[in-house]
Structure formats: C-alpha cells, structure tokens
Write a structure and sequence with these properties.
With about 100 residues, the chain is mainly beta. The chain is about 10% helix and about 50% strand. It has helices at about 1-5, 95-99, and strands at about 5-15, 25-30, 35-40, 45-50, 55-65, 70-75, 85-90. It is globular. One of its GO terms (biological process) is purine nucleobase metabolic process.
Length: about 100
C-alpha cells in the first residue's frame, strides 16, 4: 500500500480526453512522482458495473504508452447514453515496482 502513495494517478473523465481526442470519453495518465517521470507499459483494466447482476464486467485491457497515458478508453458511441454507468480502472503496478 505504501508503494501506491508514491505513484500518482491522474484519471481524467470527460467527454473529451486530456489528449483532445474527441473519439473517446475516458483517458488515464500515470506518473511516478518519486522520479518525476511517466510510467510506461503498465497494464490497466477498465471494468463496468452491471446493475442487473451486481458484478463488475471487464470492458478492455490496455497498456500505458511512453508518456504514461492511455487516451483511448471508452469509445464514444452515437448513442451517448450507452456509456452511462459506473466504471473503474484497475492499475497493475506490481511489475513496475519490482523493477
């Protein structure tokens, strides 16, 4: 848990991602504030809560790029209501800290 205190996660939820990509509604940015650099190649899993089954369902898995970003989570659909719901991102940082 202490390791998580050293890793600063910035998660941006908006209709336009932090990278100005209008095709996606969710982006993520991971920075290691102990060294002042982005964290590359970290697996991140996006899940959506299913209100009917009361369970989290995997939507997609991605890796951070060289800038510590994933800018293309949650594609924007023509039906803007189809992405409504509860989402969570799971950051798999153990391998990063083991290095």
């Amino acid at each position: 848990m202490k390791k998580l205190l050293y890793l600063f996660f910035v998660i941006v939820f908006s209709s336009v991602s932090a990278q100005e990509n209008k095709e996606f509604q969710l982006s993520s940015h991971i920075l290691d504030i102990t060294v002042g650099k982005p964290v590359e190649n970290v697996d991140v899993k996006l899940e959506k809560y299913n209100e009917t089954t009361k369970q989290w369902v995997s939507v997609i898995n991605k890796k951070t790029d060289k800038n510590g970003r994933i800018g293309d989570f949650l594609p924007k659909n023509k039906d803007s209501k189809s992405n409504y719901g509860k989402y969570k991102l799971i950051f798999f940082t153990e391998d990063y800290f083991n290095k």
